[in-house]
Structures are given as C-alpha cells and as structure tokens.
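Work Package 3 (structural annotation) set out to generate three-dimensional models for the target panel prioritized at the project kickoff. During this period the team completed the workflow that converts sequence records into discrete structure tokens, so that structures can be stored uniformly alongside our sequence database. As a representative example, we reproduce one entry of 280 residues exactly as it appears in the project archive.
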Amino acid sequence: MILGSHVSIRKGYLGAAKRAVANKASAFQYFPKNPRSLSVKEFDRGDAESCKEFCLEHGLQSVAHTPYSTSITPAKEKEELTIASLLNDLEIADACGSIGVVVHFGSQISKTDPLASYHLMLHILNSILSQWKGGCLLLIENNAGTKGALGTTLEELVQIRNLCEYPEKIGFCLDTCHAFASGLWAGETTKPFLKKGQELGYFEHLKIVHLNNSKYPAGSKKDRHANIFSNNGLILDKELKRLVTSPILKEIPLILETPDDERVSHQEEIEMIKKKWEYG
C-alpha cells in the first residue's frame, strides 16, 4: 500500500518530503506554490532537485496539486494566466520528480451551449500540453457535482483525454469523496464501478487516488471531506477498503486530503489505515 497525505511546503519541497517520512508515509501531495494564487512562481530549483533525490533515496512518490483558483474552463481574461500557471506547476512538479499535477475537471460556462465547456477545456489542455515537453503528467480529477455537474462520469473523463491532441500527457486522479458525492460510486457499487472503469480504459491511466471520506450522503453533490474512520464519515470504511485495495488499483498511491485538525493527525490516520487495511 502506497499511502500518504497532503503536506505543506512551508519549509520547501525537500521539507515537504521530510514531513512525509516523519508521517510514516510512502507518498505525499503538495501545492507547488501559493494555493490561493493563480500565478507563475520563480522557484528554488536546487530545493526541487534535493526533493527529487530525497524521494528516490526513501522510495517516496509525490504528486502536486494546482492552486484552488485554477480552472481549465477559465474566463476569457484569465486564459493566458491559467495556461502559464499550469505550465509553471508542471515545471515545478517535474523538477521535484513528481508523478503529475492534479487539476479539477472544468465547470459549466454556458446555459445555452452544453458543449461550450468541453470545447474550452480541450482548447486549454491542448494549449498547455503543446508546450509541455517534460515527463510530468497532467492528472484530471473527477468533480463532486457542483457548478454545473461536469466531470462526474467516467465517460466524460475518458472522452476528454481521448479528444485531446496529447492524450499521452494526461492521466487521472480519482477522489473517493467526489465520486461518492456525485453518485459515480456509492460504496456498495464498487464492483460495477470497477467493471465500467476497466471497460472504458479509465483505470489504465489512473495515477493517484485522493482517499477521503464524505460528510454528506451519496448523490448529495456536496464536497466535504471527512476522516476515514470518523463517526461523521458516511462512507463505510469497509467500502473504502474494498475499493482502494482492489487488484485493479494495486500500486496506485493513496493520498489523504482529510481534515488534520479534528482529533486525528494525518500521521495517526496513516498508521490506522495500515493497521486496519493492510495488516488487519
């Protein structure tokens, strides 16, 4: 089981990797820059290279996540900045030796043209990936169902990748809370969900799983993460275990984005998961 959590880069990229090791993790996620800013960062390449070397030495895998304000269906005036910011994220993640950069599927931009959002997404993806020459992937994450309910089906995710001019530069990130909230996966529907994903070729390109419980019921379209074994988490831990320990998801890193301020730290949660799921 390759397991970790989101960590801060407050002490740099190498510091983030060291924090992951202190958490007894074998993987970690980080924001490559200020999570609240759509910008281009002049980053410390030496620090990034040290992070990459440290991860190789300790068998750590990492993934970056775009800032909160990033959208692949941006407003017209933000298109150029969005493209530049995402290229910057890819460059940083590549320097750190990361698998890829997670970005959320786009949202609805037109009430009259249902295809407008998909056309814009393809334009943005093609603009970014035509310029990107590194090995780091852009990882598209499924949505919970808010803001027009796009990106909630496996068909959409697979089709966007297929229609992009550079599909080899795109992978997927599966968020379990988002899947539950959108109704894509409802805990007890693991078997048909896995079967459908295999048939569509989704799991061939799945690189990261965001391992989160949900504070709201299946189909609620509300994105509120809960701790894996929390009393207010509505996904049964046996259902989460059945999904992420499936042979189909074997060796895919699991990243916790759960609250770390609700009586359990990420280190404690990682230890609990290992004890209950891997060795229990």
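The mean pLDDT is 96.
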